[in-house]
């Protein structure tokens, strides 16, 4: 996979997360995954699975505890992706 | 102590490493053992390990792709635990000092757990963090357990040790000595100390039952209680036989995972194949593939785990699975709905799953783990009882005529040997069969109490040694049927959430006064439960109200990983008892009425 930036990851996440949103809410990098998207544990697992498959990474559990927004998640993926090279 | 630690950073003994990194591929421990089977007839856990170590069986750990990662035969576990025990001895702790372990599904956890027992120390497992944004609350939960247990040591693997360091930073325990990773412990010198053998009356470990930050309760389990329960599981519950092998994804910090799938297999010298909980949750079929590939016969799950498997299984997956070997499919840890079992059986029948393998059981950490099991091979049986009579008269009457509304309850079997179950009414009198009331348990695996907490202990351990389980149900022909939980525990997707803990979090918000928040669960027709929080609020601006709702939802999510319905109501709306205490039951009724959930109210009134 060619070099991918945090902004590109965030953009892709926004697209993916559209399926979680209610009534055509616009998702941006600042969207709060908990209060605005209501990601519960089942949705979270689905999301992690999709992220792992798509980016070919493994997301450790301990890293999710500091994730609140789409941007936080994008930063995390970027960090794992860069570290795994 | 810290000076000794830094001084002694010597190269490790190479043996352990070379064993694992040997060039030949790993082979899982065998199912068949040359050792003559002993069925948990030991007086202590260490005695059980000493015996199992004479054979070839043991624990196997798999990664998320299903590849074998580490193999720990009981023989090796014994050696490792003895070595680590000598390192623990260097701390010079008094016997029975508590050792906190963050319990990821790893060989290091089991080695440490048994090392503690060799060293005369009392280990307890703490959960790994799982929720988005939960950092601060998770650290608080750890600190709560460390303080409540008055722990002397705390260990976690590299991924999690940072949380432990934060949690121990402001710790008030005078007895706290050290926090670190298993690798750091490994670098300490081995100290030979003559340990007296463990005895049945000694505490074997503590089991924490809730992630409450203010009032965590550590169940005290003695060697005697543990061995009694293991005997019950191995002999009465599972009827262990030749060819048995276990597979498990259950967390090691959960009683069903630790007692049922770590200690029980050891006590019967069985091999176990482990998948980390996280890996199961993301790819649940890996568990079924392990069962199929290794011909496992025993595997337990919460109903929620079975649901996850159903949600993810595709036709192509079914073709590659052969689950015909699975003879004991234990189900427990939350209310069991027969539909979940029927659907699972229907889905996986083509993969060879036999529904007579279902083993719906009942238990709780306060009674070590298991309380009742149905007969092996009988499958899940259930009873359809008339809804109206159940609600109005609290009697379970089997439905006769078509067209009557009914509730179907799963038969959770009979109590283990050395155990009794009774149902009592509100006035404390024992009720006859078919009458619904509180489930009480008495027997040799009931806890001695909550650690250092006689107030909480007195609330549940009643006269004559009867343990009030907090669950509601009835007996029929000697079998237990659980009809629901009391309102103080909400179970969402297999997680136990104490209503009090949710209310506490709400009351920590500056806008919320104490005793002005009430939490409870509501279930929809499919049986999924949601957490509801009703808060009395004086805020008038719509923006402020929305901000408070958002913040409450966020902190509750961080703490428990669930979405919560928050309703703000006027002051004095929440119903109180004569003593001024909030009534969750009445708060729930009020919520259902205000929001036109009348139908739900009758449906769930029995729960």
TrEMBL record, chain A:
<feature type="domain" description="Carrier">
    <location>
        <begin position="3"/>
        <end position="81"/>
    </location>
</feature>
<dbReference type="InterPro" id="IPR036736">
    <property type="entry name" value="ACP-like_sf"/>
</dbReference>
<dbReference type="Pfam" id="PF00550">
    <property type="entry name" value="PP-binding"/>
</dbReference>
<dbReference type="InterPro" id="IPR009081">
    <property type="entry name" value="PP-bd_ACP"/>
</dbReference>
<protein>
    <submittedName>
        <fullName>Phosphopantetheine attachment site</fullName>
    </submittedName>
</protein>
UniProtKB/TrEMBL annotation, chain B:
<dbReference type="InterPro" id="IPR045851">
    <property type="entry name" value="AMP-bd_C_sf"/>
</dbReference>
<feature type="domain" description="AMP-dependent synthetase/ligase">
    <location>
        <begin position="74"/>
        <end position="451"/>
    </location>
</feature>
<dbReference type="GO" id="GO:0070566">
    <property type="term" value="F:adenylyltransferase activity"/>
</dbReference>
<dbReference type="Pfam" id="PF00501">
    <property type="entry name" value="AMP-binding"/>
</dbReference>
<protein>
    <submittedName>
        <fullName>AMP-dependent synthetase and ligase</fullName>
    </submittedName>
</protein>
<dbReference type="InterPro" id="IPR040097">
    <property type="entry name" value="FAAL/FAAC"/>
</dbReference>
<dbReference type="GO" id="GO:0016874">
    <property type="term" value="F:ligase activity"/>
</dbReference>
<dbReference type="InterPro" id="IPR042099">
    <property type="entry name" value="ANL_N_sf"/>
</dbReference>
<keyword id="KW-0436">Ligase</keyword>
<dbReference type="GO" id="GO:0006633">
    <property type="term" value="P:fatty acid biosynthetic process"/>
</dbReference>
<comment type="similarity">
    <text>Belongs to the ATP-dependent AMP-binding enzyme family.</text>
</comment>
<dbReference type="InterPro" id="IPR000873">
    <property type="entry name" value="AMP-dep_synth/lig_dom"/>
</dbReference>
<dbReference type="GO" id="GO:0005886">
    <property type="term" value="C:plasma membrane"/>
</dbReference>
